[in-house]
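S1.2 Input.
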Amino acid sequence: MVELKEIADNLIKGQAPKVKELVGEAVKGGMDVKKILSDGLISGMAVVGVKFKSNEFYVPEVLIAARAMHAGMEILEPELAKAGVEPLAKVSIGTVKGDLHDIGKNLVSMMMRGAGFKVDDLGIDVSPEKFIESAKNGSQVLCLSALLTTTMPSMKGVVDELKKAGLGNVKTMIGGAPVTQNYADEIGSDGYAPDAASAVDKAKELLGV
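S1.3 Output.
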């Protein structure tokens, strides 16, 4: 019988083929798919998040672990759908208009998926209109990323447009190297996260999940 801890441990080490194999065995063995997700993949990514926050892991290790998680999810996603397992919530993420940087955004996206969120990655250079559209399509949190100080005003644009569209119940979160909690307060964003692992915690806090 596959040990779920073994799945988590291999994910932390970034062993994608092994994670895929173990998840496949666990599914074949009739293990509860929700348990494989929560106690195997999600708990593994949670450790990766903690190590990233404490500077034990850096971007390359996180990317390798995320690749291992995706390998496991390839097997698991159809099974979760069959079993009717719902994601925690739906979030949209994008780098704001005028900004083409995506490493931070991609890390947050991977961490969110690893925590059980359904993620709609809108890409880079995303207009306020595109963010609003994703909110209308059921995203409960909009995650806005910027690396250039010159593109930070686009974040305010999204927050303002959201209110104008009467979607005040949809939460916004901002992040990126030049972004601060003060700026989040200034533009009326619901949250700020200094790094990818904190972004997951903040999203959970905003949604109460």
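S1.4 Remarks. The CA atoms of residues 39 and 206 lie 23 Å apart.
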